[in-house]
């Protein structure tokens, strides 16, 4: 690992100032992604600003909704009574990610900012526009089994690997950030971006900005929810495809629905059209199949990931059936 | 994939970055430490060693490490506590599992300096003299290992799994122990061992 300077910040202001002053500095939270990338030489900051002790680790009920500190641990959020009672989808998604050990270190902010697991990005001998803009995309014509089927660009076809973020996307959360210019609120849908011509930018955070919290509005999705994660082994593996499904039911009629997919795009992939198609319908396999069909409009496979074109709609139907209690 | 010319450029760029980081280290001397009521704002230059207080297996240590030293390397290389194993060094196997303030973590992805002030427990710290920890006893009884390389991590993780309240069923144990890989495939016996300790009801 390349040597670096180390600073421990105790206030948001000192952390933000330290980052603003030094273009090659980075924040360090749990380190479970950044230390990994530094060991491999993928990321080589000159300075780490340790933010893990900043006072943003609480989960607080607000007049409407909840505020989760950016430094709350993934395990802490997944076990939190309020979250389990009111936003169980978030706990399900968190527990589907990584391992118990990693979740004890991984923070909410760090999870949102984890980099893609594209193998070409991780291997510094390979071409990768995300790691080294302009070098080319090794995955597009290479081994792209884990890669995206929605929203890809000529420059990059990587996926965002987070499970937690799929639930946050479905639950209409908001990201609170503080930067040199003050506080800013970013709707979750606008936080991560599609690769376009700038795959090196995963999100819309600006240089020097610190995530302080994520807020969730009150939700009617406390009961009929499911997070389905399809992967190469039952646990401790990244998603091939994942689905966060939440239904508000009145008897057998769907009053409202929330759906988002992971493992299919450069950002958590919210399925707004499919959600609309579910409203007012009766829960049934046919209803869910219709929604899945709508969700797949515009999907495009590559040499090794075309199986996702079938796996994704099947997973949507399965997740909805479990959420609706039609199957377990 | 990459042309050799590109590779040369890449290496040149790396050399440049290495040099420039050394230079900036000289310029940004760590003299400007700011006092904070709770925590001292620490600034350490790249190759400068930082001081670090850790309680490891009940013994207080005043240590100095480079900022890039992982907790795993500190334990093994500097303190010769080689019970904690390095399997992958990338968070993928769990062989390096230790407890930090009672919580299981992967010591390979943890920079030692970030643990300042914490209590670390390793496999060397769980028995009471010659009296093995119940989890150690159970691993022996159930043959919870073959080569033994993953075992310290499995035991540290198994203890945490019970403490966290995630050892009620075999399925739950399998899920919450998935961060510990065993290449010998001793999984069924590991699950049996944890199940027995859980059912025995001893404090772990
Ligand atoms: C073997 C393995 C398996 C995994 N499996 C999964 C999985 O199945 N599903 C899944 O979702 N994840 C998985 N992960 C990834 C894991 O969830 C992330 O590594 C973790 O969430 C990152 O959080 P952290 O606090 O450790 O971030 P760090 O590594 O500390 O930081 C990550 C990035 O975020 C920045 N950052 C952190 N906090 C802030 C903040 N508050 N404001 C601004 N910038 C910030 C850092 O500068 C850095 O760039 C896995 C990881 C490993 C190693
Ligand atoms: S898909 Fe994106 S991350 Fe992967 S090689 Fe191409 S540019 Fe890099
Ligand atoms: S050595 Fe730490 S997880 Fe493998
Ligand atoms: S006993 Fe050999 S790796 Fe587990």
Keywords:
heterodimer; A: 328 residues; alpha+beta; Uridine Diphospho-n-acetylenolpyruvylglucosamine Reductase, domain 2; Enolase-like, domain 1; 5-stranded antiparallel beta sheet; 29% helix; 20% strand; B: 204 residues; Ubiquitin-like (UB roll); DNA polymerase, domain 1; 2 domains; 5-stranded mixed beta sheet; 6 strands; disordered N terminus; binds flavin-adenine dinucleotide; binds FE2/S2 (inorganic) cluster
How would you sum up this structure in a few lines?
With 328 residues, chain A is α+β, with helices and mostly antiparallel strands. Chain A contains 13 helices and twelve strands.
SSE layout and pairing:
The complex is a heterodimer of chains A (328) and B (204).
Chain A: E1 5-8, H1 12-21, E2 25-28, H2 34-39, E3 47-50, E4 59-61, E5 66-69, H3 74-79, H4 81-86, H5 88-95, H6 100-103, H7 108-112, H8 119-122, H9 164-170, E6 174-179, E7 182-187, H10 188-191, E8 210-216, E9 224-230, E10 241-250, E11 253-262, E12 269-270, H11 272-278, H12 285-295, H13 308-324
Parallel strand pairs in A: 1-3, 2-3
Antiparallel strand pairs in A: 4-5, 5-8, 6-7, 6-8, 9-10, 10-11, 11-12
Chain B: H1 4-27, E1 43-44, E2 50-56, E3 59-65, H2 71-78, E4 97-100, E5 103-106, E6 119-121, H3 134-141, H4 151-163, H5 170-176, H6 187-200
Parallel strand pairs in B: 2-6
Antiparallel strand pairs in B: 2-3, 4-5, 4-6
Helix pairs in contact in B: 3-6, 4-6
One FE2/S2 (inorganic) cluster binds next to loops of chain B.
Mean pLDDT of chain A: 97
User: Over the alpha carbons, how many angstroms does the gyration radius of chain A reach?
Assistant: 19 Å
- Would you identify the CATH H-level superfamily of the largest domain in chain B? Beta-grasp domain
CATH fold naming of the domain at 224-324 in chain A: Enolase-like, domain 1
- The CATH architecture of the domain at 224-324 in chain A can be named as 2-Layer Sandwich
Q: What series of H and E elements makes up the topology of chain A?
A: EHEHEEEHHHHHHHEEHEEEEEHHH
N→C terminal distance of chain A: 46 Å
Strand fraction of chain B equals: 5-15%
Please compute the radius of gyration of chain B using only Cα atoms. Answer: 21 Å
Shape of chain B: elongated
CATH topology label of the largest domain in chain B: Ubiquitin-like (UB roll)
